[in-house]
TrEMBL record, chains A, B:
InterPro entries according to UniProt: Aminotrans_IV, Aminotrans_IV_CS, Aminotransferase-like, B_amino_transII, BCAT-like_C, BCAT-like_N
A Pfam family assignment: Aminotran_4
Cofactor: pyridoxal 5'-phosphate
Organism expressing this protein natively: Paenimyroides ceti
An annotated Gene Ontology molecular function: branched-chain-amino-acid transaminase activity
Alphabetic keyword roster: Amino-acid biosynthesis, Aminotransferase, Branched-chain amino acid biosynthesis, Pyridoxal phosphate, Transferase
Family, per entry: Belongs to the class-IV pyridoxal-phosphate-dependent aminotransferase family.
Protein name in UniProt: Branched-chain-amino-acid aminotransferase
Taxonomic path: Bacteria, Pseudomonadati, Bacteroidota, Flavobacteriia, Flavobacteriales
PROSITE patterns xref list: AA_TRANSFER_CLASS_4
Parts forming coiled coils: none
């Protein structure tokens, strides 16, 4: 069945949805997708017509640039359903903007709002049944763009594919995690692509993270590549440190992804009366605060996990265990609860972050 | 037609070769490929049977790791034909080793020699007609590996595809190039993946290179990300500097690709009586040498271009033009000639670098 809903979008739907065979109780993050996807080609210097179609394989020439030169970017965002069955996005403008910043840094074409926001709204509208209500439930949205032109020559592609996938999600990590502070490996450098959500940034972290996992840790907290003295962010999360009753987090930079969760938490925390300081956080002050007992909490913040509490970290062969706080004393839990309630439309949204589809 | 040549390889050939329609006079580097390709899957913790088959599209789930996290590596090497129609590889052991080093750094499985070297020999053997004789002529070989497992979760794939493509080549660049020395952008950092031939390293360079091109330069010479004071390498070439009659090139490091051309040139140049020093090369000493007239040559060295002469460079808004040397005074031309003659089997190979297929 092929229908034109807008002049700029063609929709082909599946004959039969696979939703009945989807187990919403046991959801593995990012593993399964909804019935449809959105695709849009870029060629002859222009974005072409959008197409919503059954989720299906991508076919590319083996010399396509994405396979050889990693010209690929993505975004991660979520949709939520409220008690009235309305579906909401959380700050989609931020992801749209960041996607285009990533595009520029990777020498890829920017995309227009009609395609990015309009396209994903149209796709989610079709997949409403896949968005479940309830705090923590969401539909994870994965817009991405890959370089499709063929030819093994190390120069930017002239052809691209923009695509949106949807995957039902609960929360990302379960439980607290242990992290290792990077002493040798690094994620990003000044003048590099660390601030872009570029594919290549992630595979670069796999090996050091594997080593950390073999040593008994879940994740790495990256430090600045030049001196390894400043705490930057984790694999897919920005990081907050609570010393006494103040929250500290590094300023965004060329090396650090400008996380939507991070910026929302900063605003939310301030409005809730928490003390928040955005400034470089030194490894040294954290180990010192851990030693003298003033380091109360560390947590990661990102769309997938929302907030992930960190129970301890290792640095220079030493392991630092954080204190066990009562739930009601945790800034992390309070902020996570407040933010997810806003996202799931279970609380007021004074910031006007949520956008109805 | 399906034949088993070795227990571990299946071969399906094209019905009709497209070689007659290939224009060997006007070859654009990396744009066109031979009739066949080699593929080999990695799954269930093991490399599967190799397959040589007609060059054809790769089909992947849209959530395949390579599209989202850039888990992809490659190699670049060449085959040459001598006057007796024998086909030769140049130091394939070096590319094989480097491929596996890249694999480790990107958390990908290493591949065995039978598949990498054996596989490419079998493929080239089938494509002998595509290798043309004559100095500078070659068949460019592109082994690569991509992460194929589906799922948008930022962790290493458990499934991979190894693939080899072949593309007839002449030389890569024509004429001398102008370069820009990087002052702000960077290619790699300590603790990063600069020494790996990882896909993500290349797309990271596209935007700064585009800016350099808009300013009238062909390429960027990267400096160390921490201080921007040391000259490292170009996009796909290591770099040599001649001051008076000595050649200088940076030592390889975590940030610099260990180029086969670079190491071969160092050995060849030494054996030809040239003075070669491998040590960090400072931007400052090069601008100084350019100013006082002792900087005679700069050239890039890599498989694709072999040697690419650089006629001048810009640094801090200033352009430094190198002297016009007579051809017979150029170390670059002499070394390029000697190396390509060894590669094309037009000269003796005292180093035993060439390997017959
Ligand atoms: C490297 C990195 N840092 C931080 C984040 C958090 O950003 P956001 O809150 O926008 O999801 C992400 C995204 O998931 C990320 O990939
Ligand atoms: C970043 C980089 N540096 C240097 C080189 C040169 O290495 P080789 O001489 O092995 O081709 C390459 C490969 O082409 C490269 O990609």
């Amino acid at each position: 069945m092929e229908v034109d809903v807008m002049s700029n979008i063609s929709i082909t739907t599946v004959d039969k949805s696979k939703i009945d065979s989807f187990d919403f109780e046991n959801v593995k993050f990012g593993a399964k997708f909804t019935d449809h996807m959105l695709v849009c080609e870029y060629k002859n210097n222009a974005w072409q017509q959008m197409e919503i179609k059954p989720y299906s394989a991508i076919e590319l020439d083996p010399s396509a640039r994405v396979f050889h030169y990693g010209q690929a970017i993505f975004e991660g965002m979520k949709a939520y359903k409220d008690d009235n069955d309305d579906v909401w996005l959380f700050r989609p403008d931020q992801n749209f903007e960041r996607f285009n910043k990533s595009a520029v840094r990777l020498a890829m074409p920017e995309i227009d709002e009609e395609r990015f926001i309009g396209g994903l709204k149209a796709l989610i509208d079709l997949e409403r049944a896949w968005v479940r209500k309830g705090q923590g439930n969401s539909l994870y949205i994965r817009p991405f763009m890959i370089a499709t032109e063929s030819g093994v020559i190390a120069s930017p592609s002239n052809e691209f594919l923009f695509c949106i996938l949807l995957s039902p999600a609960k929360s990302y990590y379960s439980g607290k995690i242990k992290v290792q502070i990077a002493e040798h490996f690094s994620r990003a450098a000044n003048g590099g692509i660390g601030a872009a959500k570029a594919a290549g940034n992630y595979s670069a972290q796999f090996y050091p993270t594997k080593l950390a996992q073999e040593a008994g840790f879940n994740q790495v907290i990256w430090t600045d590549s030049a001196t390894h003295t400043k705490l930057e962010e984790a694999g897919t999360m920005n990081v907050f440190f609570r010393i006494k009753d103040t929250l500290y987090t590094a300023p965004t930079s060329e090396r650090i992804l400008d996380g939507v969760t991070r910026k929302s938490l900063i605003e939310l925390a301030k409005s809730e009366g928490y003390q928040v300081e955005v400034r470089p956080v030194l490894v040294e002050e954290i180990t010192k605060a851990a030693a003298d007992g003033t380091l109360k909490e560390i947590f990661g913040a990102g769309t997938a996990a929302v907030i992930n509490q960190i129970e301890g970290f290792s640095y220079k062969e030493q392991y630092y265990q954080l204190p066990e706080l009562k739930d009601e004393e945790c800034f992390a839990l309070d902020l996570k609860n407040k933010l997810t309630r806003i996202q799931n439309k279970l609380a007021n949204d004074p910031f006007e972050w949520t956008v109805k589809i």
